[in-house]
Design goal:
413 residues, alpha+beta, Helix Hairpins, 5-stranded antiparallel β-sheet, 12 strands
Length: 413
């Protein structure tokens, strides 16, 4: 009986405990049900906040990429293009949509930026964690120079912001390619080099003559005849110095666009006749004859008459300078299909075939001319080329040594 009562007490106690547990569990469930909506609401707010921050950051990055003056291209590790910023299509006049999912090889090899082997080497270098660079020239509507930089994209958040251990050890997930337009820098480099060449070579020779002869006149007694001869040399060297500087400035004004074309209706036959008359004094000493074969059936040309006359004058001057005495130079203006051609032929010394491509470079002179007493600025034909191109035309030359040269100025009508 006593054991039975103990069992009853234990059962009652167990029942009470179970009821209490069930009541507590029920209360917890009710509390959870009450709190659950608030937890869900908080989580949704957190998701919205994270999404808003992510979108804000993406918008910021997109604005940065859009505002960049550099072209940006991103590819994955298989060389598939996955991102193109707004600037890149503008630089190369292409559709960004056509680039996405394309292979890098198609973009670079088609534009002759890389050969297949060069691109493979550059990509291998980047995927090994290094940076690859290359400079190239784009000969589109206008010539531009670009510096290309390929660098690895890693999975580390701060990979782009410092050489951290995490960045160095993080796996590479893509290739970042930047296109820097360095055209202005290269033009400045070229201008500095040309100016240095002008000062160190072209100006030094006449200045040395002027300084040397003036020192002699100042320090030593000389006869009247010698003094007169020295003064004549000083004057001619000063004139030559002035001509070099003026021609250099003429070319630079055309190149930089600071000298605008003054377009007007030009009577080509009259312009050629005037140029022949202006060149006549140059022919006297060598008894050279200039024959004008232009016809009176040419259309009126829209051009800058003074510039065009100076260009034709330069060609005639060169023809006289490099022709033997008592020879004939011919000039004529003829009508082509869509252009007027001004053709100058001489029977001079001619130009070696290997030098033909360089004669329009500034300050370029043949070794034969540099070694002889032939005086020139090395800027005359460069000026002719600039004038032709400013008129959307061109200048061509054919030549054979000891036979002569033919220069043709092509001007569209």
């Amino acid at each position: 009986l006593s054991a039975s009562r103990d069992l009853d007490l234990k059962l009652n106690a167990l029942s009470a405990a179970q009821k209490g547990f069930l009541l507590d569990e029920n209360q917890q469930t009710k509390e959870q049900n009450r709190i659950a909506p608030r937890n869900l609401e908080w989580k949704l707010r957190a998701v919205d906040d994270i999404t808003a921050r992510l979108l804000s950051r993406m918008s910021f990055i997109n604005r940065v990429l859009t505002g960049m003056t550099e072209g940006v291209l991103v590819a994955d590790t298989t060389s598939r293009i996955v991102f193109v910023n707004q600037r890149l299509p503008q630089l190369f006049e292409i559709d960004a949509e056509n680039l996405l999912n394309e292979n890098l090889a198609h973009f670079f090899i088609e534009r002759k930026i890389f050969s297949a082997s060069e691109l493979e080497t550059a990509i291998e270098k980047v995927l090994a964690g290094e940076i690859a660079q290359k400079e190239f020239t784009d000969n589109g509507a206008e010539t531009r120079h670009f510096l290309l930089q390929l660098s690895p994209v890693t999975a580390a958040d701060d990979a782009a912001f410092g050489e951290t251990d995490e960045a160095r050890n993080s796996p590479i997930i893509g290739i970042l390619i930047l296109f820097f337009d360095v055209t202005k820098q290269r033009e400045l480099d070229r201008l500095k080099a040309e100016t240095l060449q002008l000062v160190s070579h072209e100006l030094r020779s006449p200045l040395t003559s002027i300084q040397g002869l003036s020192d002699v006149l100042r320090k030593f007694p000389v006869s009247k005849d010698e003094s007169s001869e020295m003064l004549d040399t000083i004057h001619s060297e000063a004139v030559r110095l002035n001509e070099i500087i003026n021609r250099f400035l003429d070319v630079k004004r055309l190149e930089s666009g600071t000298r605008d074309l003054q377009i007007s209706a030009v009577d080509v036959e009259k312009l050629v006749a005037d140029c022949v008359s202006a060149a006549a004094p140059l022919t006297t000493a060598k008894r050279i004859k200039i024959q004008n074969g232009s016809k009176n059936s040419l259309p009126v040309l829209q051009a800058d008459a003074p510039l065009l006359a100076q260009a034709v004058g330069n060609i005639l001057s060169n023809a006289v300078k490099y022709s033997p005495p008592e020879t004939v130079i011919s000039i004529e203006a003829v009508k082509g299909e869509s252009e007027i051609q001004i053709i100058v032929r001489d029977n001079g010394f001619g130009i070696p075939k290997g030098n033909l491509e360089r004669i329009f470079e500034k300050f370029y002179r043949l070794e034969r001319d540099a070694a002889s007493e032939t005086v020139g600025t090395g800027l005359g034909l460069s000026f002719v080329k600039e004038v032709a191109e400013k008129h959307d035309g061109r200048v061509t030359v054919e030549s054979a040594e000891n036979v002569g040269s033919t220069f043709v100025l092509h001007l569209p009508v």
